[in-house]
Amino acid sequence: MGLRIGSEMPKLDNINWVSGYPEQQASKPYLVHFWTLDCSSCIELMPDVAALLNRYDGLIHTVSINLEGEDEEEVIAKAKKAGIEAPVGIDEETLLSDAFGYNFIPAFYLFDANGNMRYFQQGQDHVATLEQRIKRLLR
């Protein structure tokens, strides 16, 4: 069973952080982004996600989680090529992704500054929808 609106954000541990390390303190809203290398929608959307994250840099915490225990160097290279500067982790044992309970990727979970989930988006929905939710949360 996955998270529901109002659910507390799971701890961002038990995964392999390959690029950076997440801010654990929920002093700002938090966006968690799940993806894989073999998901064409994930890869196509990553530059738009990176641009979104850059627009809200300093206003929200973000992490980018690869789901399939894929090659570390390839994961880092793909994230870097897309412009993802947020901490990147690989959920090799699916402990974190199981806690979130996603059904489709890419998946985005947005939490408020108190660590409660306020929005989730799964699949190929537009980044503009996600941005509207971030703006609402920052008001």
From TrEMBL:
<dbReference type="GO" id="GO:0016853">
    <property type="term" value="F:isomerase activity"/>
</dbReference>
<keyword id="KW-0413">Isomerase</keyword>
<feature type="domain" description="Thioredoxin">
    <location>
        <begin position="3"/>
        <end position="139"/>
    </location>
</feature>
<dbReference type="Pfam" id="PF00578">
    <property type="entry name" value="AhpC-TSA"/>
</dbReference>
<dbReference type="InterPro" id="IPR036249">
    <property type="entry name" value="Thioredoxin-like_sf"/>
</dbReference>
<dbReference type="InterPro" id="IPR013766">
    <property type="entry name" value="Thioredoxin_domain"/>
</dbReference>
<protein>
    <submittedName>
        <fullName>Thiol-disulfide isomerase/thioredoxin</fullName>
    </submittedName>
</protein>
<dbReference type="InterPro" id="IPR050553">
    <property type="entry name" value="Thioredoxin_ResA/DsbE_sf"/>
</dbReference>
<dbReference type="InterPro" id="IPR000866">
    <property type="entry name" value="AhpC/TSA"/>
</dbReference>
<keyword id="KW-1015">Disulfide bond</keyword>
